[in-house]
């Protein structure tokens, strides 16, 4: 019986994937500015057996729907949004096992800075950090970060290839393991002979010097990737140790998973070593009837404009320009291509009316409502049919969705041997099944190790 990995999927904002649900009396999303909110959530997840808290991020507002940001702003649809990385140290100090998957776009920040930030967090979390490598998708982000518009989709991945190369050099090869000697007698804290310049001069980046940080427990954080266009998948096949995908059905997700595992194998890596997570929103109660009643209550609070604002940002498609029963068509854009493909070419073309009923709760992934056994059955079906290793569980209300899942579904998954009893503290890489805290060959980053 294979293990099912569980991440809680959240964002440093009020409304993440379920637009309008901030109006639910139990929702605590508005406390995203309170560090205690994050610490309480981290403790809940840590104590109940979640593997990681996975935090999404965007660097712009969603302003495609109706050509305006008003719907997103009014509905708190991923705006206001704070920096996701800053509460992590506080959460790490209050937990021992929980990993932290941090989405940071590489499109608008120099690798030298990001490598330092992630090394710092790897130190402060005792090796429990993952970097979700994304290249962004919002025009509004590009414009506010000094560009006229987005860098073309595939070129962003070309930049990404060089970007991670710089990071590997900084993380893996700049400081030798025994560089820090702390020899008080000789007056040497770090042996200068064991700190090396990386001497990187490439097409996009120049970094002559050494990394600013001494080696952290994992050196390179666990590398997640999210982006499943053909170019995105090529990138993932080389670099990702874990991949985050999404889709409305196991059939749609399975297509991406098969392509991805085949591409990983082509690069000489074990396709099963790459852990694949898909997005899913659980609505669970003691009985199936209670769960269905809860679902109906949630559905009444969905904001369709808020949901369409999110969809517009993800895909670049303004649903206001379509008739309500007009099927969507696929066209390449500089937004998130796999998001649009999953509602057009991957299976069938959805209409705005259908999307309104689907993405309002749980965004681009499915909502599974039921009793603990029904939800566990569905998770097992997804694992089987989509061939995924785990889930990024999105919330309808926070922390309510996570607390219900922890109380009702985790014990059921444990009974089925899908989730282990509380494990010993370890690095996140080891928790995800790798034998060492460090990147393992044949990962390209491991080649830089001295
Ligand atoms: C499931 C999933 C989640 C994603 N989450 C984020 C995110 O939180 N922030 C972000 O900037 N991009 C995110 N992305 C998109 C990536 O930025 C990606 O590099 C870019 O949109 C191109 O995606 P594509 O290769 O699927 O076209 C996500 C993509 C997927 C498939």
Automatic annotation (TrEMBL):
<feature type="binding site">
    <location>
        <position position="157"/>
    </location>
    <ligand>
        <name>FMN</name>
    </ligand>
</feature>
<keyword id="KW-0288">FMN</keyword>
<feature type="compositionally biased region" description="Basic and acidic residues">
    <location>
        <begin position="417"/>
        <end position="432"/>
    </location>
</feature>
<feature type="domain" description="Luciferase-like">
    <location>
        <begin position="28"/>
        <end position="384"/>
    </location>
</feature>
<feature type="binding site">
    <location>
        <position position="57"/>
    </location>
    <ligand>
        <name>FMN</name>
    </ligand>
</feature>
<dbReference type="InterPro" id="IPR011251">
    <property type="entry name" value="Luciferase-like_dom"/>
</dbReference>
<comment type="similarity">
    <text>Belongs to the NtaA/SnaA/DszA monooxygenase family.</text>
</comment>
<dbReference type="GO" id="GO:0004497">
    <property type="term" value="F:monooxygenase activity"/>
</dbReference>
<feature type="region of interest" description="Disordered">
    <location>
        <begin position="417"/>
        <end position="450"/>
    </location>
</feature>
<keyword id="KW-0503">Monooxygenase</keyword>
<feature type="binding site">
    <location>
        <position position="229"/>
    </location>
    <ligand>
        <name>FMN</name>
    </ligand>
</feature>
<feature type="binding site">
    <location>
        <position position="153"/>
    </location>
    <ligand>
        <name>FMN</name>
    </ligand>
</feature>
<dbReference type="InterPro" id="IPR051260">
    <property type="entry name" value="Diverse_substr_monoxygenases"/>
</dbReference>
<keyword id="KW-0560">Oxidoreductase</keyword>
<dbReference type="InterPro" id="IPR036661">
    <property type="entry name" value="Luciferase-like_sf"/>
</dbReference>
<dbReference type="GO" id="GO:0016705">
    <property type="term" value="F:oxidoreductase activity, acting on paired donors, with incorporation or reduction of molecular oxygen"/>
</dbReference>
<dbReference type="Pfam" id="PF00296">
    <property type="entry name" value="Bac_luciferase"/>
</dbReference>
<dbReference type="InterPro" id="IPR016215">
    <property type="entry name" value="NTA_MOA"/>
</dbReference>
<protein>
    <submittedName>
        <fullName>LLM class flavin-dependent oxidoreductase</fullName>
    </submittedName>
</protein>
<feature type="binding site">
    <location>
        <position position="103"/>
    </location>
    <ligand>
        <name>FMN</name>
    </ligand>
</feature>
<keyword id="KW-0285">Flavoprotein</keyword>
